[in-house]
Amino acid sequence: MIEQSPRALVLPPGREVDLPGRGEVFVRDSGPHGEAPPLLLLHGWTATADLNWHACYPHLGQHRVLAFDHRGHGRGIRGNEPFTLEAAADDAAALIHTLGCGPVVAVGYSMGGPVAQLLWQRHRDLVGGLVLCATSAVFTGRPAERAAFAALPTAIAATRLLPERFRLRAAVRFMAGGDAWEFRTWALDQIAGHDWIRILEAGRAIGRFDSRPWIGEVDVPTGVVVTLNDRIVAPERQLALASAIRGARVNESRGDHSVVLGQPELFVPPLLDSISGVLARIRPATAA
Q: Which of 77, 187, 189, 248, by CA, is between 20 and 30 Å from 287?
């Protein structure tokens, strides 16, 4: 795989890490940076860690940054078990345990938002803060949304019949909002290793996700980055997520769902503001 993005950004060092009883995963780890909690970056559906976060890495140099591909995505864990968001959250917990680096600030984008929420719910001692970006507590409700997610089982059955090039192009269109994208060739290389059955299962899992019964219990500093022109995750859903978490602070990006890829200049500033706000609220509690 290509180890640099088209903008020649230097990516954090990476290595294979064995998660006992779970499998091997490729992990970006910039190494220890002071006493602040590490940032665990959790990518979105059909992406990879590098594809989702490559434009953000250079702006996070003062932090220890950890990022890995979710199971079935890129260089993530492989196995025969169906994809679940709970398993993805448990993979993240296993990584934190293996590296001995918790608690972390879990930074989740799109599908990474549910993974971050579940990481807090299932492994509360490992999460010191949350930054939730372009995401929600629930992803269905409107008729069009219900129909789209209901069609995924059929898509899972049919995906074996599709030529690889069509699957890759469809994923790039979903992430970037169209074909006209300067990173298209690099993106195709990044996602060429996807397990497409697991990818479609992940989409179905997103459609079933609903943290509304318990999201109000979140008791760690939280920031929510709302993508105001989002056509995938409605801004009102994102704002409802922020309203459900006591003390959550909102930062706004005037981008669409693909802003982190196509217009990172509109996404990085509110992301940094959210991270700084969460860390500022963690440090006084740690000092006390």
A: 248
CB 9, CB 57: distance < 8 Å: yes
Whether the Cβ atoms of residue 124 and residue 106 lie closer than 8 Å to each other: no
pLDDT tens figures, 10-47 = 799 999 999 999 999 999 999 887 788 999 999 999 89
Cis peptide before 82 (omega within 30 of 0): no
Provide the residue count of the chain: 288
Nearest to 65 by CA among 14, 20, 19: 14
Query: How far does CA 260 lie from the centroid of its chain?
Result: 11
- Domains of the chain listed by start with CATH number: 14-287 (3.40.50.1820)
The structure's pTM equals 0.87
At 200, is the secondary structure helix, strand, or coil?
Answer: helix
Dist. CA 117–CA 103, nearest whole Å: 14
Neighbouring residues of 180: CB distance < 8 A, sequence distance ≥ 6: none
Give the model confidence (pLDDT) of 184-241 as tens digits.
Answer: 677 777 788 889 889 989 999 999 999 999 999 999 999 999 999 999 999 999 999 9
